[in-house]
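Slide 14.
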Amino acid sequence: MSYTINKGINRPIEFKGLKAQYIGYLGGGLVCLLVLFAILYLIGLAVYACITIITGLASLLFYKVFGLSHKYGQHGLMKKNAKRYLPTYLKFKSRTLFYEKR
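Slide 15: predicted structure.
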């Protein structure tokens, strides 16, 4: 009996160049576009106009999500967003924090 070894352990999920959370962003964006198409169709907009609008927005969505994936990588966008919550500087009134406690 022989077993195959999974070489993809601890590697990020990747699909067609998209890495990690960007797959979810693209999926969520496509679901929102589907709902928008339904709303535009129910309002009474012509089908060709709906398709044109949704196609343009989908192209923009793909362009932006792939751009973010290539620019920031797997964890870069989370690091960029987390950087907003860091203080610009720390102010200490004494140095007792840095002395060794014995």
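Speaker note: The helical segments are 21-43, 47-72, 76-83.
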